[in-house]
Specification:
Broad specificity carboxypetidase that releases amino acids sequentially from the C-terminus, including neutral, aromatic, polar and basic residues. This protein is mostly helical. It has two domains: 98 residues; 331 residues, Orthogonal Bundle (Neurolysin, domain 3), CATH 1.10.1370. Helix content is 64%, strand content 3%. The protein is built from 19 helices and three strands.
């Protein structure tokens, strides 16, 4: 009996490994090459390859052989923790991809393959009309997908489940209301009380090769292992893993603003560390990946803001900046600290300061919900976008490229993804409280030794488990609490009241 069970287990592992090979090839290597090296003219044939591999993965999950193995383990009383988590992962996949008719799934994958290049062209040419037809099709697909997946109250709830967000829209709206009530008035108070910038001027022209050296330095001090990873320059920052031993970071720079590259890189460092920290023993189980995009993004936000904007760490970064850019040799540590923590509302999400960033996410969530629920047509999107930016942030984008065309997410098929960033922010601060207590350190004034302790704690308590536990389970196990906005609001209040002398 044990021998028979072991044979079945080995057969399942073989099937899952082959699916993993395809997933890693499709979602990482082909996509990474498309972002970094693929010639523009290759997109047509590349889209055929992507469509073929997508269909192959779809078919493998629904093959008679695979379904029989799945049924055997579902009925077996001998399931262990890994098998249980693997079955849950398979079921989740079935609930989403397998519920979409194959022809529609193929059409959608083909659309997404082409839409990124349509978006890139539209952004360069500042032409929303060119991308809007594509976006209409993407929204239409997701409207259909939510019907296949099912929901009780709003179709957006189906999207939250799809992105592994363990709350519904009613709960999310309560959290958002708490954040808006605190952040919007605080932003206005800061603007009213600080007519002059608290930060000294760091403007200039910064060579991309030297900025890449700075990015490599940032990755190295956070603990990213270049033996099993690399960093490249692309249009939009992202991190892609072909296994825990093959992690590709993509960052992006601004020739006139060092902060853009620095914090894009800190952000992706958090993701890269998570990917590299996953146990290799989970390969062949579908669990050798992050628990959820929420938890991965929480680590990105942790390293970008809590670590990257810390007073000690910012001093360390400035020291390296002075080596690379001698024209900044007279800048003081306090100058750089104030610069990277300055509140300065911007129309660009990835250039947003730590305080106003969440408002960019809330705007996108509210717009996506309106699109999905039929209250907003794609053609009217830019007008509502600009209206919300004026209301929440007091700024209005000067162009489509600076406004509604700034993000790649919708073109990449990540419609409904933006709440991941919001929930991740709350996770990062809630987990921080437990980390500080258990490591007996403060996450303010972090030194290199603190950073090593932080990395070890995160690896041993979160990263190594891969997708064995859900993000909600990890939060509850480590903090003993459900998701809350209070820790994030406390952090913002403590930091920005002090920085801007608000009583």
């Amino acid at each position: 009996m044990d021998l028979f069970y072991e044979k079945k287990q080995e057969a399942l592992k073989i099937e899952l490994k082959e699916i993993e090979y395809l997933k890693y090839t499709l979602n990482t290597l082909l996509y990474w090459d498309k972002l970094i090296y693929m010639p523009k003219g290759a997109i047509g044939y590349r889209s055929e390859i992507i469509q073929f591999l997508s269909k192959d993965i779809y078919n493998r999950f629904s093959s008679p052989k695979f379904l029989k193995l799945q049924e055997y383990f579902e009925k077996s009383p001998k399931k262990n923790e890994v098998i249980e988590a693997t079955l849950k992962k398979i079921k989740n996949n079935s609930n989403f991809v397998q519920k979409i008719p194959l022809k529609e799934y193929e059409d959608y994958m083909n659309l997404i393959t082409l839409s990124e290049d349509i978006w890139k062209k539209a952004k360069v040419e500042n032409s929303f009309d060119e991308f809007s037809l594509c976006l209409e099709k993407i929204v239409a697909h997701f409207k259909n997908f939510t019907k296949y997946w099912g929901y009780k109250k709003t179709p957006y709830d189906a999207l939250l489940r799809y992105y592994d967000i363990d709350i519904n829209c009613d709960e999310l709206d309560i959290l958002i209301e708490d954040l808006k009530k605190f952040i919007i008035p605080l932003v206005k108070e800061i603007e009213k009380n600080s007519r002059d910038s608290i930060a000294k001027d760091f403007s200039g022209e910064y060579d991309f090769n030297k900025q890449m050296e700075l990015s490599k330095y940032i990755l190295s001090i956070t603990g990213f292992d270049f033996t099993y990873g690399r960093v490249d320059l692309g249009e939009h920052p992202t991190t892609l893993a072909a296994s825990p031993k093959d992690v590709r970071v993509v960052t992006s720079f601004d020739k006139n603003d060092l902060k853009v590259g620095i914090y894009n890189t800190f952000h992706e460092a958090g993701k890269g560390l998570y990917e590299q920290g996953i146990s290799e023993n989970l390969l062949g189980t579908l669990l050798a990946e992050v628990s959820s995009q929420v938890l991965e993004e929480s680590q990105a936000r942790f390293y970008e803001n809590i670590v990257g904007r810390d007073k000690n760490i910012s001093s360390l970064i400035l020291k390296k900046i002075k080596e690379l850019f001698p024209q900044l040799k007279d800048k003081e540590d306090i100058d750089f600290y104030r610069l990277v923590n300055e509140v300065k509302p911007s129309p660009i999400r990835i250039e947003a300061d730590e305080l106003t960033y969440i408002l960019h996410i809330i705007i996108r969530y509210e717009i996506e919900k309106d699109l999905l629920e039929g209250r907003l047509d794609v053609k009217d999107l830019p007008e509502l976008w600009n209206k919300k930016y004026k209301e929440y942030l007091g700024v209005v984008p000067k162009s489509f490229s600076e406004g509604v065309l700034q993000d790649i997410h919708w073109a990449s098929g990540y419609f409904g993804f933006f709440p991941v960033y919001l929930i991740a922010e709350l996770y990062s601060h809630q987990l921080k409280k437990t980390l500080e207590k258990e490591c007996n350190i403060s996450s303010e004034n972090i030194d290199v030794e603190n950073l090593k302790k932080i990395n070890i704690w995160l690896r041993d308590n979160i990263y190594c488990h891969g997708a064995l536990y859900s993000s909600k389970e990890i939060l509850k196990r480590l903090t003993g609490e459900n998701l809350s906005s209070k820790y994030y609001i406390e952090y913002l209040k403590s930091k920005y009241y002090k920085l801007y002398n608000i009583k």
